[in-house]
Each structure stands twice: as structure tokens, then as C-alpha cells.
Amino acid sequence: SLGFLGGADTPIQGRLEPGTRLGAPVRLLVNGEEAVATAASPSEEPDVVTFSLSCAELGEYLGDGDVLELSTDEGPVAWQGYGLALAVWPGHPSRADELAERLARGHVFNKFGQLRGGNTTARKRDVLDLYEEVAAVVAARTGHQLMPFYGNLLGAIREHDFLPHDVGGFDVAFLSESASPEGVRSDVLAVCEALVDAGYDLTMEPFSAMVRRRGATPLLVDINYCWVGEDGGLGMSYGWRYAPVTDLATFRAPRRAALADRLVPVPANAEAVLEQIYGPGWLVPDQGFQLAVGLQRDERYLLSWPEREALAARDPDRVHLKGDPEAR
Questions:
Q1: CA-CA to 150 of 20 to 30 Å: which in 81, 135, 216, 284?
Q2: Number of H helices, E strands in the chain
Q3: Which of 323, 327, 301 lies closest to 312, judged by CA?
Q4: For residue 192, is pLDDT > 60?
Q5: Contact between 105 and 62 (Cβ < 8 Å)
Q6: Which helix (H) or strand (E) holds 192?
Q7: pTM of the complete model
Q8: Is residue 284 pLDDT above 70, yes or no?
């Protein structure tokens, strides 16, 4: 599929020759230079190897005569129906030189397909400093432990580093010990109130709180949360896609993993948690992973608009609301 190149709101996706090694690099070249890369990934079909590339903002840099190619270590990959090279003619001049300059400065296409500054060593340290600072406040005031989650848990377990294309907020989560939706939401609001009282700015969504230091700053910690559902399985506020983890005793057991230059707390069964989120292929990098596909949520555990409004009333200057006020 040409995805965004063909006018769709999806990544570039394709199948690879049978026998292609899982994890083998798959690169998208613009005029012969690598623009974005992913890895050959397993699919739900037996013996079918796929790839996915999320780089929709690339379209803003392409102009008349630019040439796109796909390649692996084993050679070129054909564009079905177009051959080994795809020339584009959108009717305006190319900005490929500007693209190359930004890539040379370390910009990357993130998980939303946007070209953004990458995770430099300095940025990693600054983000981890903010995470440790926020986690200390939450632990001291509520007793909850914040640990890396979603993409940052994946980075810690699979690569002991940040994912190259995950350059947004630093995703964390805590486990509520409440068994009811009302109790879980109460725990979440207690965490948020503690952070407001400690002087942080919060941007609230139904499933998370984005936490920044006071003032305009791009660094943020995105606090999600987990609970044990009525079926005994692990629930997650942003959502999950596969069978829930049921071994919560192991989830709670102490474990630490390397993430860049730190040791961070993680669920003791982090591998099972990652399979619940990303599926059995979580060990293979997938730059074009689509967050919304197959996502499951239990809306009863998510903060309602009135609950978020009440939090904002506590300090309107520090608490900002996202989402639809009609979705009550």
C-alpha cells in the first residue's frame, strides 16, 4: 500500500519475499539517501513478513522528479505496479535538500509520521531527570510508583534505550490497587492533585495527564494508569490489543532495567505486558506501528469531563483540558 503517498491516512506498508529475515532493516530512500527505516516484521499470517513506515510529513518535502526506493540488506524491494523506483510529480519543486539537511541534524520521523528533533543524549538525560523528579513527588505524596510504560517500557526492555522514533512525551504508568472504576479514577485524581499542588502544569485527557514544569517547555511526562479488571486481567488507560496479563503478583515484584544512562523500575513480567500491548512480535522494531488498530479500552475507568473540570477548577492556570466536552 502506498499509504499517505496514495492519499490515504495510513503508513506505507508491504510484504517482503518469503524467507526474509525477521528484524532485517527496511529502508525508504529519497533520491538515493535514507529518509526513514524500519524492520521486517512478523504478521498474523503464517510465514508472511511485512513492513510499515510512518512518515506522512515526508510528502511536504517531495517535489517534481524526486525518486523513492525501498531496500533491504538483500537488495531492492519493488513497488508493486511501479517497479524498483517510484518517481513523484506533484506539480511543485522538490524540498529534498531541506529534508536531507534536517535528517543530517538528527531529525527523525516519529510514530505519528511527523519530522521532529530526535532523542539526543542531552534530551534523554533531561527527560529522565523530569521523570525521576515527577516520580519522586508522586511516590512521596500518594505512594504510587511511576514506571516507564508503552513505548518507553518497550525501549527499556528491548533496546535499553529510547526508541529512535518515539520523541514525544515520556510514557509512564502506575498500578492502582483499587478494584472499582470509581476507585481507580479517584487514585488518578489524587495523583493529579498532588502534582498541581507541587507546582506542575497538567494537560488532561480521559486516559492520561501530561505533566510539565511550570512555563513553556517541550519536555513532558505522560502519566497513564493500570488496574486489575473484573476478570482479573490487567487494564491500561490508553488501551491494549491482546490478552490481558493475569499474573499481577509478578507484575508488582521488584525489577529494574537499563534505560539510556539510568536504571528504572519496570514490571517484573514486562515481556508479558509488552505482548499485551503490542502482540507477540514486540521484539521486532516496527516504525510504522499504528496505535489505533485493534485498540481496546474500558471507558468506565477513564476520567469523565466533569471529573477533569473539577480538577481544572482547583487551579485553572495550571490544569488544561483536552478532548470533547460533549463526551460526558
A1: 216
A2: 7, 19
A3: 323
A4: yes
A5: no
A6: helix 181-197
A7: 0.90
A8: yes
